């Protein structure tokens, strides 16, 4: 079994209105040292071994469903669960 942590963020070229709203709120609370906020998604998946490599499986899932490849980037970390 594998635990996969998936991090999805908007591409740098894409405006992030939600991040801008959070930044403005932080500034209104006197956290003026915050220069930029980008909002993203985080997911944890538990995956059983299969015919495909875990990397290939996760790449397929991210590009087909979990992330929008037009406006989002993704990265992931894979941890093998021992004793599962």
Automatic annotation (TrEMBL):
SUPFAM superfamilies: PurS-like
Top EC class for this record: ligase
Pathway connected to this protein: Purine metabolism; IMP biosynthesis via de novo pathway; 5-amino-1-(5-phospho-D-ribosyl)imidazole from N(2)-formyl-N(1)-(5-phospho-D-ribosyl)glycinamide: step 1/2
Gene Ontology molecular-function annotations: ATP binding; phosphoribosylformylglycinamidine synthase activity
Catalyzed reactions: N(2)-formyl-N(1)-(5-phospho-beta-D-ribosyl)glycinamide + L-glutamine + ATP + H2O = 2-formamido-N(1)-(5-O-phospho-beta-D-ribosyl)acetamidine + L-glutamate + ADP + phosphate + H(+)
Keywords for this protein: ATP-binding, Cytoplasm, Ligase, Nucleotide-binding, Purine biosynthesis
Location within or outside the cell: Cytoplasm
InterPro entries the record matches: PurS, PurS-like_sf
Cellular compartments per GO CC: cytoplasm
Keyword Nucleotide-binding attributed: yes
Any one biological process term the GO annotation gives: 'de novo' IMP biosynthetic process
EC assignment: 6.3.5.3
Keyword ATP-binding tagged: yes
Assembly mode: Part of the FGAM synthase complex composed of 1 PurL, 1 PurQ and 2 PurS subunits.
Family: Belongs to the PurS family.
General function of this protein: Part of the phosphoribosylformylglycinamidine synthase complex involved in the purines biosynthetic pathway. Catalyzes the ATP-dependent conversion of formylglycinamide ribonucleotide (FGAR) and glutamine to yield formylglycinamidine ribonucleotide (FGAM) and glutamate. The FGAM synthase complex is composed of three subunits. PurQ produces an ammonia molecule by converting glutamine to glutamate. PurL transfers the ammonia molecule to FGAR to form FGAM in an ATP-dependent manner.
Family matches, as HAMAP family: PurS (MF_01926)
Protein name (Swiss-Prot/TrEMBL): Phosphoribosylformylglycinamidine synthase subunit PurS
Species assigned in the record: Bacillus salacetis
């Amino acid at each position: 079994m594998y635990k996969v942590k998936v991090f999805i963020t908007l591409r740098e070229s894409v405006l992030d209105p939600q991040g801008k709203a959070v930044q403005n709120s932080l500034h209104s609370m006197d956290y003026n040292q915050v220069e930029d906020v980008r909002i993203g998604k985080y997911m944890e998946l538990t995956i059983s071994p299969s015919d495909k490599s875990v990397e290939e499986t996760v790449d397929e899932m991210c590009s087909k469903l979990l992330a929008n490849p037009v406006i989002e980037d993704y990265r992931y970390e894979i941890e093998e669960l021992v004793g599962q």
